């Protein structure tokens, strides 16, 4: 059977962040409530010149050569921050990246689960078409509003993954477990730009879904916790994944508990300094684990994907010996290190300056834009995308 999985990973987040200790102080909260209680240190600030399409393009450009672009047969774009109720963000992206016109381009939506749906559909496609290459995107901007309970779990960015046969990073196992229920823990009606969330309820649903799919996965595969070197979680905030891991740690030996806990700390490092990516969150956890962890080839990683509303999936994969060749560590580290810290007042101004929903023509200030792909404005109700 063809070995299929993640060959390359790229990541992009804009070049600004707000310090969570400063935000806590501005909101009259103890900084430790954000730093420890939620588990976040920094939060990405998204300028009006970046949306899910441009962030996806900036992430994908890191991993796609002209030769690879010519070989892509499908783009699967997971997002809950779509820019059009009809036209897929994947179509805009395929055009920006100059992909072949005989490319299938689809947008997928189920809260934070969308990129996992894309990954699994891509893997199935490549198993049938071993020469095929699929670009899978998870890109979002998490918005709950200023001075709301969810403000501390905002953020944004994009993950781009190339799914192929004989992958460089991760070979996906064939079996996964998934669970769906109609749950109102988080939703965003079409008339709202910010999400609605029942935070405590959502956390409980997340934890219950994890227990459900983990138990079903074990029953299907006869694997146990001893078969895993690490677990990666969807992390709307890092404390949530830690709670999930703690549910199953008693199944491990004391020595393995130490190993799994250290792996989790590595997996949450980048999320802690970026914030919530919605569909991209789980895969930033993976990338952070690969960058900061102590894993070696041929070790198995477990993944818990969760999308409010609600859908959960547990799946697994085996790390490949040369996994570090699938991403550019120096570029990723430099991208995060070069970000500019903005004040709370500046963050609030940028938050309020997002492209309006009234359809009027807008020309955005793009003079200081550093990203390769950016949004220049809107004319005749059409977004104007540009490449540097």
Summarize the structure.
The chain has helices spanning 20-26, 31-38, 52-60, 66-71, 89-96, 114-128, 199-221, 238-248, 254-267, 269-272, 281-292, 329-337, 344-352, and strands at 4-12, 16-19, 42-44, 72-78, 104-108, 133-142, 155-165, 170-180, 186-187, 196-197, 230-233, 300-307, 311-319, 340-342, 362-363, 373-379, 382-387.
Mind explaining what this structure looks like?
With 388 residues, this protein is α+β, with helices and mostly antiparallel strands. The chain has 2 domains: 4-170 and 327-387, Thiolase/Chalcone synthase (Peroxisomal Thiolase, Chain A, domain 1); 173-321, Thiolase/Chalcone synthase (Peroxisomal Thiolase, Chain A, domain 1, 3-Layer(aba) Sandwich), CATH 3.40.47. Helices cover 35% and strands 27% of the residues. The protein has 13 helices and 17 strands. Strands 5-4-6-7-1-8-13-12-11 form a 9-stranded mixed β-sheet, with helices on both faces. A 3-stranded mixed β-sheet has the order 3-2-14. A 3-stranded antiparallel β-sheet has the order 15-16-17, with helices on one face. Helix 1 packs across helix 2, helix 3 (52-60) crosses helix 5 (89-96) and helix 9 (254-267) packs across helix 11 (281-292). The mean pLDDT is 97.
